[in-house]
Specification:
This protein is mainly alpha-helical. The chain is built from 6 helices and no strands.
Length: 111
């Protein structure tokens, strides 16, 4: 019995560590799906458009901290005229502006 419990603990430890149970303070990476969900939760009800926009934002190379700021408060993001006002770095703000332009030309044409 003791061997079975020990073996189970050895199997479970890597799984818990991989799931964030290892005590790491690093936030999980923001995925394209996370961005799409935030856009939809923020009022963009067209899932196809949200998916297209999310792909462009992620592909544009916005940093993880920039993506976190974008999805942190989607209502504020939607109302913000300038991404830097959300606290983004100049580099991320430039990438977000370029992504927004690309979204208009690429995603809205699909509609």
């Amino acid at each position: 019995m003791r061997i079975s419990l020990f073996a189970a603990a050895l199997v479970a430890l890597p799984l818990l560590t991989a799931c964030g149970g290892g005590g790491s303070d690093k936030p999980a990476d923001v995925s394209q799906a996370d961005v799409s969900k935030a856009l939809q939760d923020g009022g963009l009800k067209d899932a196809k458009l949200a998916d297209c926009a999310a792909k462009i934002y992620v592909d544009q190379g916005i940093s993880q901290s920039g993506l976190r700021l974008m999805i942190k408060n989607d209502a504020k993001s939607a109302a913000a005229q300038d991404p830097e006002s959300l606290g983004m770095s100049k580099e991320d703000a430039d990438k977000a502006r370029a992504a927004t332009t690309k979204i208009v030309t690429d995603c809205l044409k699909q509609q």
